[in-house]
Write a structure and sequence with these properties.
Distance between the termini: 60 Å
Helix content: 25-40%
Largest sheet: 10 strands, mixed
Number of strands: 16
Strand order of the largest sheet: 1-8-7-6-5-9-4-10-12-11
Number of helices: 16
Length: 528
């Protein structure tokens, strides 16, 4: 079994819904059930059932749901009830609403990070003295921060599905890691220890207060693992114990948010594995000193200050005598659909609502919608300037050759024939681009103004010649089509949606034209 998914050792019967091992064996658990992760209700979709109250005529939505299968459902439900729904950043745009959108992103950060990176939103919390120590040289750490700061930590735990510490923390501090003084949610406590060199008795082994999981290396202290299992502690073995695999395991269990309260060695490993997204640093007005006194983060392999990780959206808050600094290590992901040239969509296809639509990308011919590519093997039969019917192997052949069609020069006519005889669309594209670059004076003078028309004629011929392609195009009705070329910023959408996506726009225009023609029961004209 790979190290990404752990194997659970528990006493009792099989856990329904637990991750299966190869061969179908389930993880095992004690009689009591696991705490329900807070992500469950956000991912199952029940919250999309909207029951509008009488008298409500308008709803302002801060952020669409980041999960594709849930995005927009509540909005559509409200609008179907005749309620006006305005979405910040779409229907409402101003400096004030930009700030409101930022606030919405911060509030929904756990769900956004989980959806984007397939790991729970992870927060690293530590308390340190003014000289950057989290404990004295002896390891004593009670207490670095004040009572008010510790109360804030209880609140952080109450908002987390799990709290993670390392073996050193268990041996030195014997923590309880509960959200005491805060009513409601109780997080799962996770101990990461490669060797399972943990004390026989510890507060964390008392599972009456909260559920405990020990994550360890495969085969480590099997006898001790069994003792933990008998106490009701779950032991999860990994081939190679590391923060990334533990977070993947937590993701599979449905955890939304995880709080790391570990020492410097484990925090450094978690940061290096890029699973820490935000930092909460409580700084107390104390100086403890000590060359060997531990610091919040261990070795990261950085030798110059220019390599330091700059926190993003940093905020400061004074809590009694302590100062809380918080900031993001990684930017909050924006999972709203990236649609190239979004403002042009309504004019191309009025039936498409850019913010409430599916995005269909195509690029390579073997993709699901690869037949939309200019390189797809669908020959065209098109008349030339004299009315003679010519066969072009692909749309790309036709398009590249027409850079030189009509130019009164024998070399330009040779280029047309060279491209037409190219054995593949890749070769046709290479020849056409090379000749255009080497002989710009032989390119037709009106090419820049006519190339879109040339492409549209070829697309109309292609789709009218092959009924199954027309059916495929019509099956995308209501969706935005994007040619996802990362390099061609004119015909494609680019890497980050910065392209003009003219090929996708022409296909949507053709789709709209065909649908309009079908509605009037007129056959699609031959694109001669």
């Amino acid at each position: 079994m790979g190290g990404r998914r752990g194997v659970s050792l528990r006493a009792g019967h099989a856990l329904r819904g637990a991750p299966r091992r190869p061969g179908g064996r389930r993880a095992r658990t004690r009689g009591h059930g696991l705490p329900q992760p807070r992500a469950g209700r956000l991912l199952r979709g029940q919250h999309c059932r909207v029951l509008p109250r009488p008298g409500i005529t308008r709803v302002v939505v801060g952020l669409r749901h980041p999960l594709k299968h849930l995005r927009g459902k509540a909005i559509q439900s409200l609008r179907s009830e005749g309620i006006q729904v305005d979405v910040v950043g779409e229907d409402l745009q101003s400096k004030l609403f930009e700030e409101a959108l930022t606030s919405c992103l911060i509030v929904n950060a756990p769900l956004l990070y989980r959806a984007a990176y397939h790991v729970p939103f992870s927060v690293l919390k530590y308390a340190m003295t003014a000289d950057g120590k989290i404990a004295a040289s002896s390891g004593h750490a009670s207490w670095v921060s004040g009572r008010a700061s510790r109360g804030r930590v209880f609140e952080l735990r109450g908002r987390s599905d799990a709290v993670i510490v390392g073996g050193n923390t268990v041996r030195r501090d014997d923590p309880r890691l509960t959200a005491r003084h805060v009513k409601g949610h109780v997080p799962v406590r996770i101990v990461m220890s490669q060797t399972c060199d943990l004390p026989e008795e510890a507060n964390l082994w008392n599972v009456h207060e909260a559920y405990t999981i020990v994550a360890t290396q495969r085969g480590a202290r099997r006898d001790f693992q069994k003792k933990l299992a008998m106490k009701g502690v779950e032991v999860v073995e990994f081939d190679m114990l590391n923060p990334r695999d533990v977070m993947s395991y937590c993701y599979d269990r449905g955890y939304l948010s995880v709080l790391w309260e570990c020492g410097g060695t484990l925090s450094a490993a978690a940061i290096s594995a890029r699973v820490i997204h935000k930092v909460y640093a409580f700084c107390a007005p104390k100086i403890i000193g000590g060359v060997n006194a531990p610091t919040p983060v261990g070795e990261l392999g950085m030798n110059q200050m220019t390599q330091a990780i700059d926190l993003i959206d940093v905020s400061y808050e004074q809590i009694d005598r302590d100062m809380l600094m918080s900031g993001f290590i990684q930017p909050i992901p924006d999972l709203s659909p990236v649609i190239p040239s979004v403002d042009e969509i309504p004019s191309v296809d009025p039936e498409v609502s850019p913010y409430e639509t599916n995005i269909i990308s195509f690029y390579k011919t073997w993709d699901t919608f690869g037949a939309f590519s200019n390189f797809s093997p669908h020959p065209l039969h098109m008349p030339d300037e004299q009315g003679h019917c010519l066969t072009w192997l692909t749309v790309e052949h036709y398009y590249q050759a027409h850079k030189f069609v009509g130019v009164d020069n024998p070399q330009a006519r040779e280029f047309v024939q060279e491209i037409k005889k190219a054995r593949s669309p890749e070769e046709a594209a290479r020849i056409g681009r090379t000749r255009q670059r080497e002989f710009p004076e032989l390119v037709r003078a009106d090419w820049e103004s006519m190339k879109i028309n040339v492409m549209y004629r070829a697309l109309k011929c292609k789709f009218s010649s092959y009924p199954h392609l027309t059916e495929m195009l019509l099956s995308t009705a209501g969706s935005v089509l994007v040619e996802s070329s990362p390099h061609d910023l004119f015909w494609g959408g680019g890497r980050e949606g910065e392209g003009l996506n003219y090929l996708g726009r022409l296909l949507m225009q053709l789709r709209s034209e065909i649908l309009g023609t079908v509605r009037t029961s007129v056959e699609v004209a031959d694109s001669a």
